[in-house]
Amino acid sequence: MKNLFTLFALILVLNCTKTERVEVIKEFDGPKITKTVAVIHPIGENNISGTVNFGKTETGTKITAQITGLSKGEHGFHIHQYGDCSAPDGSSAGGHFNPEDMKHSSREAEKRHVGDMGNLISEGEEFTTTLSYIDDQIYIEEIIGRGIIIHAEEDDLTSQPSGDAGDRIACGVIGVAQN
Fold it and tell me: Would 6 be classed as within a structural domain?
């Protein structure tokens, strides 16, 4: 009888201490995020600055860049994995944002890194370099907190893994913009 009572007490204690995992899903009650922005800062000794804006449209995400201080020529332009511009050479931003593990290519390619945005074409440091296009592979929800990197040289759009675009010369972090 004593063993039966001990067994009963042990079962009671174990059931009382048993924990259950309860999953809580909270809906976001705030405004829908429809715009993001990256404020671009120089890496190293240059005067590059500007903004890259992302906005939801019916056909994709509109990307609009306005950059000053770029030398004349083409400069690789990418979304990178991390929104971390703290390393002196920009390496803390990681590689191109590539959630589908695709090969590097042009922004027009069906199969590419999501972060492949081609090249910015500058007329020279005294000019503002602009770019505006709609991208059907970039989703605002996936890029918040990631980095924008501008490279010193042209992205050849074919070299793996990143287009052989040279040093990182500017960086920004993509954040939520006022709607």
Answer: no
